[in-house]
Design goal:
Jelly Rolls, 4 helices, alpha+beta, elongated
């Protein structure tokens, strides 16, 4: 083998190694966009308009673009009217990569609401505060909160959802998370409402991430790398490392090292 041939082979091997090292984990690709979930960026933040007509989410806690400056959305209702809301907070953008969750982890929902309404008595049309989590259009969990304060006080709502086989993998472009909020109680119509200086209007408020009181407006996902979740999201695969690199990286590096060793060995033999 001539010197020129050996140099050509060595150059080809070097190109192979450089191209293989440019392959980055799927989680790292998504992490380049702060609005996307990753192991180091697992908190989904809630944003929206001041009248709750639009609510959206993403994973960048510093990007409040378009969200209400007051840090909350609120619907108001006339004297004695039913205090009723039904809206859904959806991802602003689709996922760039599938999101994988720890099969032993917990999805944590933390919100703060403020309700002013009448009481739910027998014969009244009532729907307690109900949160529903969707994976795309698939409902994965729902919880009803029966003891929500309705006297105009801020109340923290916490909901822990254990990850199961239906929530370990969230496919990009079709299975982004959505959170639905429902509530319907009668308006206040006490005898004092006949007085001209008494305001008996009702209201429902939910705080967004950019509120000034430090109230939570997040959904925390136990995000893991693809290799930690396994091919179908069941858990780690035997023999796989947990660095999150794409399959084949170790093989390419190994083949490159063998090729270099072969070139060096043959060179020495010919020189000898």
């Amino acid at each position: 083998m001539t010197t020129m041939e050996r140099e050509a082979i060595a150059f080809s091997v070097a190109i192979l190694l450089l191209s293989s090292t440019s392959i980055v984990p799927a989680s790292a690709q998504a992490a380049e966009d702060p609005k996307q979930p990753s192991v180091d960026n697992p908190h989904m933040h809630l944003w929206g308009t001041d009248d709750l007509s639009s609510c959206w989410t993403h994973f960048d806690g510093n990007d409040s673009s378009g969200s209400a400056e007051g840090g909350y959305g609120e619907q108001t209702f006339g004297d004695g009217q039913q205090v009723s809301v039904d809206y859904t907070c959806s991802m602003q953008d689709t996922f760039l990569q599938d999101m994988y969750l720890n099969s032993n982890g917990t999805i944590e929902v933390d919100l703060v609401v403020n309700v002013w309404s009448g009481d739910c008595n027998q014969g009244s049309e009532c729907k307690n505060l109900t949160l529903t989590l969707y994976r795309g259009n698939i409902q994965v969990a729902q919880k009803e909160f029966q003891a929500v304060d309705n006297n105009g006080n801020d109340e923290m709502i916490s909901w822990d959802i254990p990850v199961d086989q239906n929530t370990t993998r969230w496919n990009k472009s079709s299975e982004e998370p959505r959170l639905q909020v429902e509530f319907s109680w009668p308006g206040y119509n006490g005898i004092d409402c006949i007085l001209p200086f008494v305001d008996c209007s009702g209201s429902f408020r939910m705080y967004y991430e950019n509120n000034e009181d430090g109230n939570d407006a997040t959904v925390n996902f136990p995000v893991v790398n693809m290799t930690e979740a396994g091919p179908n999201g069941e858990g780690p695969v035997d023999g796989e490392d947990d660095e999150g690199f794409l399959p084949g990286f170790g093989l390419l590096a190994g083949l490159g090292a063998l090729a270099l060793a072969s070139v060096t060995s043959r060179s020495r033999t010919e020189e000898h």
